[in-house]
Request: fold
Amino acid sequence: MKRSNVIDANFAKYVEVFRKLLLLNEKNDLATTLKNIQELMSFSEKIFSSSAVSEAFLYFCLHGAATAWVLQCELNMPEATVYRALKRLRAMKVVVPALKVSKVKRSKGGPRPTVWAIETSSPDEIAKALKLHYKMLSPKYRVAEEVAQTILDEFQDSGKPLEIQYRDIMGKAKELKIPFKGPDIADLAAQYLHERGIKVWR
Reply:
C-alpha cells in the first residue's frame, strides 16, 4: 500500500476516534466538555502542527459539516486562515465537498459557498450546517451570538452554575448597547445558550 493511502486510512480512523470522544461529552456539563475539548485540541495540534487546522478538524469531528463562513464565525478565525485550514484538511481527505450553497437574494457575485463534510457525516448534519450558514448571514443572529458568547465567557471565568434568568440576558443585551430590539436579540441569545447546555429560566 502506498504511503499516502496509509495516511488517508489513518486519518479516517482519527476522525472516527475523535468523533466518538467528542460526542461522549453530550451528557457532560459545559466545564467538563470544555476541559475535554482542550485536551483533544492539544493532542490534535501535535498531529497537524497548526492550531487553526486542529480547531477546524475538531469542529468537523463534532458537527460533521460546515461552510467556510460558519468556521469563520464559530471559531473566530480570519477568512484566509479558514481557507488554508480547509485546503489542508481537503488535501488530507479529512473533508470533502458535500453541496453548494444557494445564493442569497441581493448578495454580491462570486463563487457559491460549499458545505464541507467528513465522509461519515449524516444528511442531518449537512442540513444543520446549511441552516447555520444562513443563520450566520443574519446581522441580528451575529449580534445575539456575541451577547451569548459574552455570557458564556463570564460563566467560564466565574465558575457559576450553568443557568441564567432570561431577564439577565435582556440586561446583558442592553449593557452591550446592541442596535436591535432587546427581546429579539434575547430570544436568539437564549436559544444559543440552551444549545450549549445553559439552562435559561423565563
In short: The longest helix spans residues 3-23.
